[in-house]
Amino acid sequence: MILKRRPSDLPLSKDAIAWFLPWMAMLMVFFATLTMAMTLSINTMLVKWTQSVSGSITIQVLPTEGDDGIDKRQTRIETEEALSLLRNTPGVASANLLTDHQMQNLLKPWLGESVPLEDLPLPSLIDVQLLDGVDVDLDNLRNLLRQKAPNASIDVHKKWLGKLIRVARKLDYFVSALLALIISTTSIIVIYVSCSSLAVHKPVIELLHLIGARDDYIAKQYAIRTLILSSVGSVVGFIFVLPIINFFSKIFTDIQAGLLAEVGLTPFAWFLLILIPILSIILSTLTAYLTVQRTLRKLL
Predict the structure, then answer these.
(1) pLDDT more than 70, % of the chain
(2) Residue 38, Cα to own-chain centre: how many angstroms?
(3) Which of 94, 112, 115, 232 has the fewest CB atoms within 10 Å, counting from its CB?
(4) What gap in Å lies between CA 236 and CA 29, rounded to an integer?
């Protein structure tokens, strides 16, 4: 036996304005999902950056200028002096000079694979890993390095990472405000559509009251109608935004330009994105139900 949904006692399917709701739900879910995906991608990237540079610093030894150009021998001596000093500094877990192969991988996104490193005046880079829970006096280390290797400098990643984190936080505030605006707009539209429909069908609603229908029964009719329309719009909006998210993900992956290759969405981020159309449907349905009940108490 095939179960059929009981038709509504209200001619809601004839409301032309009600068909405005799925279009708005589609647009709201589309922009909310796209904005949230961008924010989650940036936050994921920042987490990866933080994990990769936490407890580490970089020492660069600039090439030494000689009478005939770059003095490779003097540069090598300063690099070895810097390595010796770093490996004997309390709080330093390890200090390793980046190999030519590692330098090639770092420069590949910008220079390609065909550029020989020996033809470029590149600095020597030393990756320094610090012990957990141990504070290293960077000012003292900088002074000691200046004595042993005048062309050496310290690059502390926390400075530029802190700036990026502050930018990401401002972006989070912007997204939160945008999502609040989307939620408010969706609620206002549902309220407007519901009130307009109640005004159009007031004679029918009065008749239903006369034969014993309660406000809760009528409100459920509107809630079911809103559930169907908002579900269609929310699902379509979410489906439409997926190719765009995939398109930008492929762009960032194809670029492979250092930090941009870290952009991506985690499984938890995808879970949050899937929640957006679900929450949109729930919000629209509850708003319609509560609006109709409150309006009926005032009109009738």
Answers:
(1) 75
(2) 4
(3) 112
(4) 9
